[in-house]
Specification:
Elements lengths: L7 E12 L2 E12 L2 E6 L6 H8 L7 E6 L2 E3 L4 H6 L2 E4 L11 H5 L9 H6 L4 H14 L16 H15 L3 E5 L7 H16 L3 E5 L3 H7 L2 E6 L2 E7 L5 H9 L1 H4 L1
Parallel strand pairs: 3-8, 3-9, 6-7, 7-8
Antiparallel strand pairs: 1-2, 1-4, 4-5, 9-10
Helix pairs in contact: 5-6, 6-7
This protein binds adenosine-5'-triphosphate (ATP) and magnesium ion.
Magnesium ion binds next to helix 1.
Length: 255
């Protein structure tokens, strides 16, 4: 356990969220500390992405509250959560395929050219490309050919850009919804290393994955969701591959 102190960084308290008649989250308590990686696991449809979207301001909770550094917060938009230093990699990564890697890394926070061009809103393309590559390299992600558009990248490289963007901007909370999707074995291990480095910088990191060995490798604590409820929240040392799988599927209690 490498959590720095006991103070909770970000917390969901008794959060419920439905989509019409689908109860995606039911009375969920979720805590994240600085310098901690929390694994969020559960079967398809368990509510993991919904919890990420509540934490990142995409969906307001139907009930319950969000508390950041001891202060209750209501996000009117994902932008507000972002401004409060909650950085998110969504499962559907949201890159703009026709834009360059640089433009994607800076999407929504474009560096404007100074002077009249800046006032007209032109972006400093080369500067962004350079800075983007630097930011990606900082987090251990190297991509050949920075001027390429995202449409020209492989699925794994796109995923790397999306991860790099989230990690590079993260200052407090980093929510990663299946970041190792589409990645080869070596790249996935690199992402785990990027996650460890983010934790060592003091960030609170949420890591969602169906690859249980990765979860067991990188997480300090694991929260298991089943049908929208938290069924287990315990230090990683209390799980092994078999018990984690059993908790996810619910077969552990049944047997
Ligand atoms: N926009 C939506 N509209 C209606 N129902 C939704 C919507 N998003 C998710 N759901 C439903 O809410 C439940 C939880 O979905 P969620 O995406 O949070 O699951 P998940 O744990 O992320 O699953 P996966 O591992 O497949 O990504 C599911 O029953 C899903 O069908
Ligand atoms: Mg999901």
């Amino acid at each position: 356990m490498s959590a720095v102190g006991d103070a909770v960084l970000y917390e969901a308290v008794g959060v419920s969220k439905s989509y019409g008649s689908v109860e995606a989250l039911l009375d969920v308590d979720f805590k994240l500390h600085s310098g901690e990686v929390v694994g969020l696991v559960g079967d398809n449809g368990a509510g993991k992405s919904t919890l990420v979207k509540v934490l990142s301001g995409v969906h307001p909770p139907d009930s319950g509250k969000l508390v950041l550094e001891g202060v209750e917060r209501h996000w009117a938009s994902p932008h507000e959560a972002l401004a409060a230093e909650i950085e998110t990699l969504y499962q559907d990564a949201g890159l703009a395929p026709h834009l360059s890697i640089g433009a994607n890394v800076f999407l929504g926070r474009e560096i404007l050219r100074p002077g009249i061009l800046g006032r007209l809103g032109f972006m400093a393309q080369r500067q962004m490309d350079r800075a983007a590559l630097h930011e990606l390299a900082q987090v251990g992600i190297e991509i050949q050919g920075s001027r390429k558009t995202v449409a020209e990248l492989s699925g794994g490289q796109r995923q790397a850009v999306a991860i790099g963007r989230a990690v590079a901007w993260a200052r407090k909370v980093l929510l990663l919804d299946e970041p190792t999707n589409h990645l080869g074995a070596r790249q996935a291990l690199e992402v785990l290393e990027v996650i460890r480095k983010a934790r060592d910088r003091g960030l609170g990191v949420v890591f969602i994955s169906h690859t249980l060995p990765h979860v067991l490798q990188v997480c300090d604590r694991i929260v298991v969701l089943r049908l929208g409820r938290v069924v287990r929240d315990a230090p990683t040392s209390e799980f092994d591959a078999e018990s984690l799988l059993g908790t996810i599927t619910g077969l552990l209690e049944a047997s």
